[in-house]
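Now read these lines:
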Amino acid sequence: MSLAPLKPFKEALQKLTSKTPVAADLSSAEWSQVPQALRERAVFSARTTNAGYVQEIKDKIESILNPKTVMRDGRPVTEGLNVATARVELKQSLKNIGYSPEPEKTGGIEDLSSDRRLNLILKQNVESAQGFGSWLQGQAEGALDAFPAQELFRAEDRKEPRNWIERWRGAGGQFYDGDRMIALKSDPIWSEISAFDTPYPPFDYNSGM
């Protein structure tokens, strides 16, 4: 699934721009223990302590979410970052501040400059902003009347997918037509299955759901 260029999404942008970049030497597990209200107001990356770099992460995400239309040779052209370009630029920013990973961590998720790490950061934040925007639009009275429920389904394949059926069942979710996971939008099940305590996707890192 391509993330860019994207149509401007007012609610998604508002969600992102309201956040504050936070630099902190916290692991992902430690960040998960931070109260949700604080996490929801922050842009952060585990074990990232350079405030300027975290600000740049936020700037890149905003550019992905908000491509601009400019006139070129008398024709409208959409300009905006995509994940690949943002990743390259963030790699260069890390070089500029003198970052180099520990040899045993090079290329892995703990390497701030690895493709795997940067793809995760960018995709997670973009999809979270989009998920919030879609959720907020869906809470409008007319939208709830027309579409009161939603379904959890696999949108992207994974080599080692999590067992979402068991996760759904463990949170008290109901099944329809066999194993279809459907619930009212107002059902607390959505926050229950989320690793981030939010009622909108993504519900976990790289979930594909």
About this structure: Residues 10-138 form one domain. The radius of gyration is 18 Å. The chain has two domains: 10-138, 147-209. The longest strand covers residues 68-72.
